[in-house]
Amino acid sequence: MAGQCRLSDVSFARASRTADVIQMHATGLSAERVSRPDALVATSNVENAPGDKQGFLRSRIGRPICSVIQEGIALKISVEQRQK
Known about the structure:
Blueprint: H1 9-27, H2 31-34, H3 43-48, H4 51-58, H5 65-82
Helix pairs in contact: 1-5
């Protein structure tokens, strides 16, 4: 349809994968865990996370992954802003 901007299925899938990667880097959670935002952070998530993210996740065991993702993204933005 002329005049309408549509996000193609391919573009949407690419954007979704990009968001997952950003969330994984910001939190240290695996792709499988990021895809289940209502699940709770578990000890196994801490053990499987990169060393620099284990402390972040350890203090959030038992909390919903969706809230941990939000905190991780906010922290990532804050650090990036301070580095400028």
